[in-house]
Amino acid sequence: MSNLLIEIGNTALKAAWADDATLGKTFRYQGEKYLDFILSITLRKKAEVMVISSVNPLPEAETDVLKTYCDSLLVLDANNRQWLLNHSLPSYISFDRAAAITAVRHLFKGKGCTIVDFGTTLTVDFITEEGVYTGGNVSLGCRTRFKALNRYSRSLPLVNIPENPQTVGLSETASIESGVVSGIIFEIEGYLNLNPENIVVFTGGDANYFAKRMKSSIFVVCNLVLKGLALIACEYVQKIEK
User: Fold this and answer.
1) Which of these, 235, 240, 222, lies nearest to 23 by C-alpha position?
2) How far is 149 from 171, CA to CA, in rounded Å?
3) Are 63 and 163 in a shared domain?
4) 129 inside domain
């Protein structure tokens, strides 16, 4: 079975083919013509099930086009909040977070988990040993913090994530680098101390960068959201077949 999984985020689109719950080739696209990019993936192979998680509602005209490139289409966006409620999740969380929670419930079944996603936003979510979602927080992601300092100050430069940040900055650039990176580390350590018995799962573009700077043992699953979408596709197939 070849299912196509698509995550349309704040800054980029990520996609992957999957056979049941096993991920295959992955893709990444950053631009405005995301519909053309999706269609280009399906030129040589038609998806049996296409699952799309989107931070913004997809126009009906686009979903009508996508339906012709797969046998079944499942769109997870603001118009499908009932899916969240059906899976014991609050209706306000984004579907990338929901997919990550779905994956962690499967990968670490029977374990309490703290999930940290390092993307445009920094999200932290908690689930119990029984897989019950107990809440989570959202703040600015690492690169977003650098951009905000540059944009909302009169003189601070825009800097990138440093390879080896100083503990305390000894220049303007180093102060910004250390302030943002150290601030995130202190923030995450505070969250981990709330449930020290939990398994900690990092995902997102900066997951490896921060994992190696943490004192705790960390599981890094870079394609956690796509893994969750693969599981959601499998569940969707089962419902279709009944």
Assistant:
1) 222
2) 16
3) no
4) yes
Does residue 213 have a pLDDT over 70? yes
Res. 1: pLDDT tops 70: no
Q: Which amino acid is at 19?
A: D
Q: Cα separation of 52 and 58, whole Å?
A: 9
Q: Any idea of the CA torsion for 217, 100, 118, 26, to the nearest 10 degrees?
A: 110
Region of 233 please: left (phi>0), alpha (psi -120 to 50) or beta. alpha
Residues contacting 132, CB < 8 A, separation 6+: 88
Residue 32, classified by CB atoms within 10 Å of its CB into exposed (0-12), middle (13-18) or buried (19+), is exposed
* 96 flagged as catalytic: yes
Same domain membership, residue 85 and residue 31: yes
Considering the candidates 71, 77, 96, 206, report the single residue annotated as catalytic: 96
Q: Residue 192: which of 166, 214, 160 has the closest Cα?
A: 214
What pLDDT, on a 0 to 100 scale, did the predictor assign at position 167? 87
* Structural domain ending residue among the three candidates 92, 125, 144: 92
- Residue 81 pLDDT > 70: yes
Helix (H) or strand (E) holding 123: strand 121-127
Q: Is residue 74 part of a domain?
A: yes
Total residue count of the chain as it appears in this document: 242
CA–CA gap between residue 54 and residue 117 (Å, rounded): 16
Tokens of 74: 């499942």
pLDDT tens for residues 119-154? 999 999 999 999 999 999 999 999 999 999 999 998
Q: How many domains does the chain have?
A: 2
